[in-house]
Amino acid sequence: MSWTPTAFPLAWPDGFPRTPGGQRERWAARNDPSLTNALRECQAELGRFGASNVVLSSDVTLGVESPRDPGVVAYCTRNGLAIAIPCDRWNSVAGNLRAIAKSIEALRGLERWGAKHMLHRMFTGLTALPPPEAWRAALGLAPGATLADAEEAHRRLARAAHPDKPGGSHDAMARLNAALANARKELGHG
User: Fold this and answer.
1) If we measure between CA atoms, which residue out of 41, 106, 119 comes closest to residue 79?
2) Nearest to 51 by CA among 121, 107, 116
3) Which of 12, 13, 117, 150 has the most CB atoms in a 10 Å sphere around its CB?
4) Per-residue pLDDT for 31 more than 80?
5) CA–CA separation, 7 vs 72, rounded Å?
6) pLDDT tens-digit profile of 32-47?
């Protein structure tokens, strides 16, 4: 991988939609798996899959097994491809880990059943791309910044970054515009 995804905090891959919190479901099986068992199952499936450079990204920390955001992403390398397998359909980290494990098990089944070439083609859609630059960093803001802070920083920085200004460029302005769009999206105004 040309970039290193983080185990914490959750590094959701760009281009994969998130499940709205109110639409998340309880794990479909009778009982939710324990976090320990789901983690073991996911790691075992990744091993059987031939994955290397595995990073399981989530908001789980020592002492916090049930974070507000239960999303999980399995990042790995397989046959030279950097892959991201995200899941946030379920309302628990353990449920999402188990879903990733079951998905990998199904992918391994495709190989066993003779669809190896289709599987390789499919992975080009799962190729992990670096996430976009964090909007707070792009706008020079600290954690906890508000949308008003982002808009003010955008106006201030755009004065120098605009392509009509000496030293400005289309790339610099596009970076600022993307940062503001991401701020609006994250803070619910875009």
Assistant:
1) 119
2) 107
3) 150
4) no
5) 9
6) 689 999 999 999 999 9
Radius of gyration in angstroms for the set of CA atoms belonging to the chain, rounded to a whole number: 19
Residue 14 confidence (pLDDT) above 50: yes
Tally DSSP H helices, then E strands, for the chain: 6, 3
pTM comes to: 0.64
Domain boundaries, the chain: 21-124, 135-188
DSSP track, 107-164: HHHHHHTT-HHHHHHHHTTTB--PPPPPHHHHTT--TT--HHHHHHHHHHHHHHHSTT
User: What single-letter amino acid sits at 164?
Assistant: D
> How many Å from the N-terminal Cα to the C-terminal Cα in the chain?
31
168 phi and psi angles, rounded to 5 deg? -80, 165
